[in-house]
Design brief:
single chain, alpha/beta, 5 helices
Length: 129
């Protein structure tokens, strides 16, 4: 058994399959899940695991070139907006409907237990060299 890093076998396997340019949607419990991408649902109960915990875990495991979030996060969820700006300085903001449209092309969806609005981000994978 692994001692550290991501222990969820479904998530660990899905992350290992990602390549340069693939996108990962990290979303709250209320985000519509698009048909098509592989889904790893980590939601246990409202707020568990939090968006911040899952995002930090993924950022520790992945090389991320950039991210995209809904512009509405700035007003509807200032805490998530701050978190995203701190973790992803090159964050792009688009209307929520555009984020949902782009999410359909995600390679992986990771659903958190977050119960606050607009705690969603599309991460764009990079390469480690």
């Amino acid at each position: 058994m692994k001692r550290s890093g991501i222990l969820n076998r479904h998530l660990a396997g899905a992350l290992a399959e990602l390549g340069h340019g693939h996108t990962v949607l990290v979303c709250d419990a209320g985000m519509p899940i698009p048909a098509g991408p592989r889904v790893v649902d980590l939601a246990f109960r409202a707020g568990v695991p939090s968006f911040a915990e899952v995002l930090d875990g993924l950022l520790a495991e992945l090389v991320v070139e950039g991210g995209t979030a809904a512009d509405e996060v700035r007003e509807a969820n200032p805490a998530a907006a701050r978190l995203l700006r701190e973790r992803l300085p090159a964050l792009d903001l688009v209307p929520h409907e555009e984020l949902k449209r782009r999410s359909a092309a995600a390679r992986l969806v990771v659903r958190t237990g977050e119960a606050r609005p607009y705690a969603n981000v599309l991460l764009r994978c990079g390469v480690f060299f």
